[in-house]
Design goal:
Number of strands: 8
Distance between the termini: 48 Å
Strand order of the largest sheet: 1-2-4-3-5-6-7-8
Helix content: 25-40%
Order of helices and strands: EEHEHEHEHEHHHEHEH
Strand content: 15-25%
Largest sheet: 8 strands, mixed
């Protein structure tokens, strides 16, 4: 069957650039390691440029708002690209989407992870021209552990800065927290309660939990240190607008953690900067979070705070 179709040219091509080194750090054993990110963006037909020296897309090359994807994985280490395909909808919406790897709890203890996130943000600003990024409009989106780190970075405080890419800001203008354990004190208490009442629970000791492995060091000071790493206890007047999504059937990070986070923001007089959505029937990162309606909600949030203000 021979058929002529006319698909049109409305959708722009997305290019994917992988294994970009944004930081060089040392792990817990003193071994040097490269931290890498990937970037998705609409910037023309790259293969045609390579093959024919020209491009079939009319690209204005204007700077675009950027969004940094911070993966989850319980701080144990997660491939930066494992679920980045679920973020392609943001690239389709015209954002530059970066996805990062940060040090796992086996490679570094807190605050190494938030230092890595802030370093990645400064890297994006330092290389804004190269990746067609508007350095004044950068957001964050993270799931689970990445949601916690994103929310912490969203406080826009002067804490947890390194010297890499010094002179560039690590502030963000919008943040989406997907079911993040933003209150690590409550998460540790939840795990301790489960260990006490359920002999088959996956953890047997506090230091084996995700939070325990993240902090390391003396168990008796973990909660004190966890408070300083938890957004509800370190709220800042510089906090950017934040979108919080959590499933009401989450068995790993109780929805109450996000509920209380939103309440703490409201109690601090910043309720106008926060939107909280509870996903009915959703568990921890289950497919409800990646349905078209939810993606439209997230895209609209970033469009409001990163694109409409450009």
């Amino acid at each position: 069957m021979r058929t002529v179709i006319e698909p049109g040219r409305k959708r722009k091509s997305i290019n994917f650039i992988d294994n970009i080194v944004y930081s060089v750090q040392k792990d817990l054993n003193g071994n040097e390691m490269e931290l890498k990110m990937s970037i998705m963006l609409q910037n023309g037909n790259s293969e045609m440029r390579l093959a024919a020296g020209r491009d079939d897309e009319d690209e204005d090359k204007l700077p675009k708002p950027a969004i940094l994807w911070v993966p989850g994985g319980g701080y144990r280490g997660c491939d930066k690209n494992l679920m980045v395909a679920e973020m392609a909808f943001l690239a389709d919406a015209g954002f530059v989407v970066a996805s990062m790897y940060y040090r796992s709890s086996a490679e570094g203890h807190f605050p190494d992870q938030i230092i890595d996130v802030k370093t990645a943000l400064r890297f994006l600003r330092a290389h804004a021209a190269e990746y067609e990024i508007d350095p004044d409009h950068i957001g964050l989106i993270g799931r689970s552990a990445g949601g916690h780190l994103s929310a912490l970075a969203a406080m826009n405080s002067a804490c947890y800065e390194s010297e890499e890419w010094e002179g560039f800001s690590s502030d963000v203008q919008a943040c989406c927290d997907l079911f993040g354990p933003v209150d690590l004190v409550k998460l540790m208490e939840f795990d301790a309660e489960m260990m006490e009442k359920d002999p088959s629970y996956r953890w047997k000791r506090v230091e084996d939990t995700h939070a325990g492995a993240l902090f390391g060091g003396p168990v008796e000071t973990m909660k004190e240190r966890a408070r300083l790493a938890s957004p509800p206890y370190v709220l800042s007047n510089e906090m950017c607008p934040i979108l919080i999504l959590h499933g009401d059937q989450d068995a790993l990070v109780p929805c109450e953690i996000s509920e209380n986070f939103y309440k703490s923001i409201a109690d601090a007089g910043m309720e106008e900067r926060a939107d909280f959505y509870i996903l009915k029937g959703a568990g921890h990162g289950t497919k409800e979070f990646f349905q078209p309606y939810v993606k439209e909600l997230i895209a609209a949030f970033f469009y409001q705070h990163l694109r409409n203000s450009t």
